[in-house]
Amino acid sequence: MSNITHLECSLCATRFEPHRVHNLCSCGGTLFVRYDLPEIRTIWTRDQVRSARPDLWRYLPVLPPQRPESIVSLGEGMTPLIRAPRLGAAIGSEQLWVKDEGLNPTASFKARGMTTAITMAKELGIRKIAIPSAGNAASAAAAYAAAAGIEAHIFMPKDVPQSNYIECKTLGATVTLVDGLISDCARMVAERKDQEGWFDMSTLKEPYRVEGKKTMGYEVAEQFDWELPDAIFYPTGGGVGMIGMWKAFDELEQLGWIGARRPKMIAVQAAGCQPIVRAFEQGAARSEFWQNASTIAAGLRVPKPLGDVLILNILRESAGSAITISDEDILDAGRELASLEGIFAAPEGAACVAAARKLIASQFLKLADRMVLYNTGSGLKYLDAYAARFNAR
Question: What is the pTM of this model?
Answer without folding.
Answer: 0.96
